[in-house]
Amino acid sequence: MSTVARPMNDEEVFSEMNKMVAFIKQEALEKAREIKVKADEEFNIEKAKLVRQESINVEEQFQRKVKQIEVKQRIMTSTLINKSRLEILQHRQEMLEQVFAEAQAALAKVPDDKDQYSKLLVTLCVQAFLQLNDPTVNVRSRKTDVALVQAAVSKASEIYKDKTGKDIKATVVDDDPLADNVLGGVRVSTLGDRISVDNTLLARLDLSSDRMLPQLRNILFGQSPNRKFFN
Predict the structure, then answer these.
(1) Cα distances (angstroms) measured from residue 67 to each of 35, 57, 71, 73, 170
(2) Is the whole model's pTM more than 0.90, yes or no?
(3) Terminal CA-to-CA distance of the chain, rounded, Å?
(4) In this structure, are residues 129 and 169 in contact, taking their beta carbons and an 8 Å threshold?
């Protein structure tokens, strides 16, 4: 015996429709929730990427700034060190010049002691004669020293002969004197003045200054810690 389906009444149809609507609504809510969750995840991932990239950019900028500051500091330090070194060198040079100026002032007083100065003139003439080793020489001096030099040349010629066994003709040139700023002493020449020995006090001071400059620096300033060789 077959059963014939009974048509649904309005109330049943409305109930089924409500169920279908509720199901569709539930599916839509779940789908929307899934979309939102996925969107939030993607947003957070992208946000993290942006934050991380920005952090890297900030760190790189910071490091560049640090390096720029370090370079500026090194340049400034180097500039200050060089400036300080130049000031020290200038101060030392001024001290050396003062020492030489005081030595020159002391030498300028040497001729005041006529006896000692006369002996010195003899020694200076003998040295020049021996260096030139020529039978004929010319001797020049300051105008104020001509008389003393003439006497010194006579004695020096005798000493030269005793040392070498040779005669020497030494002529004092009084019409072409040396300038007063040579401080004293003699300039002896030969072969038409082409070869000469400058034994003036100023020339001897200059020569001594050049030779003694390293020793003077050590005495005044001490040995440089950066110097490796001392010979």
Answers:
(1) 47, 15, 6, 10, 76
(2) no
(3) 138
(4) no
